[in-house]
Each structure stands twice: as C-alpha cells, then as structure tokens.
Request: fold
Amino acid sequence: MTEVAQSAEAELGGLLRSLGVRRGGVLMVHASLSGTGVAPELVRDALRDALGPEGTLVVPTFTPENSDTSRAYREAVADLSEAEADEYRRTMPPFDPDATGCPTMGALAECVWSTHGAVRSTHPQTSLAGLGPRARQLLRWHARRSHLGRLSPMRRLYAADAQILLLRVGFEVCSAFHYAEYLTRPRPARRTYRCVVGDKGHWVEYRDLSLDDSDFGAIGAGLPRRMLAEGEWASRAVVLCGMRDVVGHAKGQMSGYRRALA
Reply:
C-alpha cells in the first residue's frame, strides 16, 4: 500500500466515525472512487471497520445490461445496425447473482459482491449485495415484480433503520428514493420490463412501477440540513443520512408535485 493510499484510508476511517456511522448498524453505500487512487478493498475494509463486527454493509449491484428495456441497452445498440442489434440481444448473458458483474455501479459495488461471504439478492435488474451478520436476513428474498419496493430488500433496510452513505456521489443515485416512489399516492404508472435469466436466450417479462430518478437530485437538494451529516473525502462531498428520514421527505415531495404533473 502506498503512503498516499494509507493516508486516504486513515482519513476515511476518521471521517466515517465523525459523521456518525453506527457501530453494529446497517449501512447502504453509494460510492465513486474514481480519481482517488485508493483500492476498493481498502474502502470496503474502512467501512466494515467503522461498522464493527456486528454491522452490515450493503451496496446496490444493479445490472441493466441484461435487459432490452433499459437505458443501458438503448445506449449500447444506438449505433448498431438492425442485424448487429439483433445479434447483440440474442447473445446477451443471463443474470447470475454469483457471477454477473455490475460495471455501472462502481468499483466498490464490484468489490463487495465478489468478496468471499457476500450475500446478493436475486433480482435480475436491481440486486443488492451485503457483507455482515444481517446480510442474509436483509437480502434473502427479492420478488421480480418489485425492483425496490415492498417485496424487495429495500423494505427490510427501511425497517432496520439503515443509514445511507453517499461517498463522493450525489442524491441523483440514491436508490432509497425509489422506495419512496412505491409509497406515494397515487401510485406511479406501471410498465413492462424484460431481461435474461437462467440461460442465454431465456427472456422473462414482468410489470412493475415505471421508476423515475430524474428528480432525485432536486429532492436531495431540498432535504433539511438537520437530516444530513456532511464532510469531504478525496476532494468530494460525503453525506450520511438516515434512510427513514430521507425516504419520508422524498415521499412527501413526490406525492405533491408528481401528482400535479401527472
């Protein structure tokens, strides 16, 4: 380990403690390590040290790449011919929670799900992975028709009074806000999703809420500062908050102006 990496790891550990990461608690982390020069294994270990042996670390390990109804798929085939797009779709690999990477979720997420002893939920699009004594209980069941709703681990994270850490990323990627979408009234519209599971070429179709993250940044910017513990690491902002607090605020916001825009 370089001296710079050692210093950054030590600084991160001190920051996590000062922000108020609960020992023995549940912590869901969204992170960007780009440009830090710090290996994801060191960040994973710093997070687990802050949580202590009884704490549980959770990360989103979403896999939009194996769906033809995702933004990632549309971007991947945008410049392909019809024949090339058909071949791309035909050869898309199925989701396997023990083998499928999550390249769009960052180095820390990849590190956590691939760590020995990690538990990963089975949703082919919006899985979560965790390390710690409560990981299996929190992630054990994930209904396909509930990306991040009442039949997903997100509800159990909410019930567990999880904390959320945004490590050098903004609320634009705060997946807990999707749980708020399931709690709003009137309920958002539903749509059809498709993805590959089990074997190559085995496509499944299901319906769930039409999830919309376009206003997450604005919702985060409007959160009362008393809900947030804020700091900085590797030249970018770090925010710690309680999942119940921010989901409750997001639900109120969405139930108001999203109804007006419907």
